[in-house]
Amino acid sequence: MTLFRLKPLLAATAICAALVTPVATYAEDLVIGQTFLASGLDPAEGSNGWAVVSHGIAEQLFQVSRDGEVVPNLAASAVQNADSSWLVELAADRFFSDGTPVTAAAVAEALNRTGAANPSARATAGRMVFSAVDEDTLRVDTEQPTSILPSILAEWAFPVYRLEGEEIIFTGPFAVEAFEPGGSIEMVPNAHYAGAADRPNVTLRRIGDGQSLALAFASGEVDMAFHLPVETLPMLAGIEGEAKSFPVAYQYMMWMNTRAGALADVRVRRAIDLVVNRADLVTAVQAGVPATGAFARSYPFAATEDLPHDPEEAGALLDAAGWQLGEDGMRRRDGVALELVLYAFPQRPDLLTFQPVLRGALAEIGISVRTQVTENPNDVATRGAFDLLLWAQHTAPAGDPGQFLSLFFETGAARNYTGWSNADYDALIAELRAESDPQARIALARDAQEMIAAQAPVSFLVTPEWHVGLSPALAGYEPWGSDYYVIRPDLRVAE
């Protein structure tokens, strides 16, 4: 069968001509559609560091391999000194996209700037100070002693870059040619990255919801549709190309705002957590497994016990908290109904699927839930403008539990969206931060998850499976690293 897929930028006249004379080959360009796109290119701001690595624009000193191991990238090695500082040797012959060599001075300037501006860069070992020993050697001094510096430098907050005036220049396999915030990024191969001649130009488009993404793939507008809703897969069965399903190390979760109102009471939070039937959520999205805690089961520090589902105990907790069940099936205290708002966001289609399931489960124990959809979940989370907020997070992108457990749950942490505070938990995380023995770190991470479960500032729901649509131009593409390494140096147009 002759393969014919139109690129989205073709004019109407080109479409008419193509209908007369079908084209049997692809252009040396790829269009990739995703429900998320970098909001900016400065790694010192928010979670931009994650996005620019995912988009193939930036790299770090260390990265996580397809097998989940932390391996050197822009660095060649890292060795700890007797005084707990580290020496990092840079890899040879690595360049920024303008041809400038990657030097220790350039790396130190960038990472010191990020560390000063971005709280996420201080989550695991506190503030880190980078200094150039010579052109190829960095010294790294950490506020909190750590034995896992390579893993920390593989965290999403640490892409390497350099500033040229107001321009930020990266080292990744692709360089930005044009950027439309919230819309698209036009990228070309980085001419100073090995193998550049074999890479295509790439247009990365943000498509706001999963259904529209599936339609764009079905119509041939995109060569890759990353993160398709499971319910669209049957529609794509007859489309040229394929849809691949793959497990990810994300966790779907539900934040509970502990600052005020009913959710300030741990008994109400625990009741909500107990009434959630995670198996029902897996059934709803037709993929994944019930979460056991903060981390996917594949990690050695994951919690090992299934989370309980006990509506009867949930009702008893609400009774004890003074929320009495009325004849209409609703809970009230002092004449006020127990009503909550549950937010989700369309960039993660599965979360929208969860909303009616959770609303029904909470209604069974007398809690009224109104569902809302937001295009700006980071804003809602940061402002604490929610009761319940569904969330998707890669909880161990660098293969270690420390960053997530610190950044999202320590008192006053930058991403402690729930407002939860617990002195015993903070002390445990301080111990985890200082611990170097791998087995002891596993034990501490599991203890931390037990504390979280007991206080329920969050419900961990599902470890998901995702789906990516691939045109024949991307035959052989293998997704890995969840959505952290989507556009990689090995991206090629298939023969």
TrEMBL record:
<protein>
    <submittedName>
        <fullName>Peptide-binding protein</fullName>
    </submittedName>
</protein>
<dbReference type="InterPro" id="IPR000914">
    <property type="entry name" value="SBP_5_dom"/>
</dbReference>
<dbReference type="GO" id="GO:0030288">
    <property type="term" value="C:outer membrane-bounded periplasmic space"/>
</dbReference>
<dbReference type="Pfam" id="PF00496">
    <property type="entry name" value="SBP_bac_5"/>
</dbReference>
<keyword id="KW-0732">Signal</keyword>
<dbReference type="GO" id="GO:0015833">
    <property type="term" value="P:peptide transport"/>
</dbReference>
<feature type="signal peptide">
    <location>
        <begin position="1"/>
        <end position="27"/>
    </location>
</feature>
<dbReference type="InterPro" id="IPR030678">
    <property type="entry name" value="Peptide/Ni-bd"/>
</dbReference>
<comment type="similarity">
    <text>Belongs to the bacterial solute-binding protein 5 family.</text>
</comment>
<feature type="domain" description="Solute-binding protein family 5">
    <location>
        <begin position="69"/>
        <end position="413"/>
    </location>
</feature>
<dbReference type="GO" id="GO:0043190">
    <property type="term" value="C:ATP-binding cassette (ABC) transporter complex"/>
</dbReference>
<dbReference type="InterPro" id="IPR039424">
    <property type="entry name" value="SBP_5"/>
</dbReference>
<dbReference type="GO" id="GO:1904680">
    <property type="term" value="F:peptide transmembrane transporter activity"/>
</dbReference>
